[in-house]
Amino acid sequence: MKTDLNLLRVLLAVHETGSVTGAAGRLGISQPAASAALGRLRKALDDPLFVRRGPRMHATPLAQGILGKTREVIDVIDRDILTPPTFDPATCKGELSICLSEIGEVVLLPALYRLLRERAPGLALKTLSLGPDDLDQAMYEGRIDMAMGYFPDLTGADIYQQRLFSHVLACMVRDTHPIRGPRMSLEQFRRAEHLLVRDGSRTMEMYEQYILSQGIKRRIGVQMSHYMSVPGLIEDSDLVVVLPRTIAERFARGGRLRVLAPPAGIPRYDLKQYWHRRFHNDPRLRWLRGVVFELFDGYLAEPEHDALLTGRGPASGGPGKRRGGRKAPSRG
């Protein structure tokens, strides 16, 4: 026999309050609804369940026999199943899996790791790099908790995204390079010998598509797949490399390299955090998204510097902008 759980709640409430009216008040339903529920349960069990004596209704032997188990079942459901799960970062254990590009690991990971060590010391970080199709499936399956960076292909209806900050590309040359000034002209850009990094990221793919669409011809002297060897090659040559501004400025800290604005028009791009709708309400991941937004909302927001690097004013827009995927709430 299948019995609606709500009928058992009425049974327990009538026993504890002594009347159908009292049970209805406790459960927040009408008195006729409570009476009808008790009637259905009486019919299902073929027993009156309660008999009135004076002002109270008293349980029959059958009702008394099931009341104890009914209370246990309802307590378990209310406490362990229907109560929203909680998350305490200070005491939690486990692993967070985040999809990051090589640039994302350099730019975003250190600050995130430091904050997690302070607030969630029991959580370990694991980063992976996946293509858009594999990434969508991995987030659906829970193998990847979130993605951070520039992932314009993550536009499915089940993918939420939240803008963190806008970023720009820059040119980098050796400190004594004959090209002077804060910006490289288009003519200087065309004449220069270029070091081209094809790291498989969508950022550099976007840059290459822009160059192609504008019909800009370059002279490629060196092509490579990683950034680690870039500073040494640039320091000892007249090569020019285009790369994300944060990476260029990090490489230039030693004083032997210079960061220049590229020719006007090279587009900026938005870095975002992405997650799957299936895990939108997971308290652990809600907390993580809030931490990421706290760290990187408006990160690198230097309008004058950005305007110089892009040849236009600073980007507008805030977190939670939708591009294909679902619009995200402002915090997790």
Overall description:
With 332 residues, the protein is an alpha/beta fold. The protein has three domains: 5-81, Arc Repressor Mutant, subunit A, CATH 1.10.10.10; 94-165 and 273-327, 3-Layer(aba) Sandwich (D-Maltodextrin-Binding Protein, domain 2), CATH 3.40.190; 169-260, Periplasmic binding protein-like II (D-Maltodextrin-Binding Protein, domain 2), CATH 3.40.190. 41% of the residues lie in helices and 21% in strands. The protein contains 13 helices and 13 strands. The protein has helices at residues 5-17, 20-27, 31-45, 61-81, 102-107, 109-119, 132-141, 186-191, 202-213, 230-235, 245-251, 283-296, 303-310, and strands at 50-53, 56-59, 94-99, 123-128, 146-149, 159-167, 169-174, 193-197, 219-224, 240-244, 257-260, 269-276, 326-327. The protein has a six-stranded mixed sheet. Strands 9-8-10-7-11 form a five-stranded mixed sheet. Strands 1-2 form a two-stranded antiparallel ribbon. Helix 1 (5-17) crosses helix 2 (20-27) and helix 1 (5-17) crosses helix 3 (31-45). The chain is rod-shaped. The two termini are 43 Å apart. Residues 303-325 have low confidence and may be disordered. Residues 308-332 are annotated as: Disordered. Keywords: DNA-binding, Transcription, Transcription regulation.
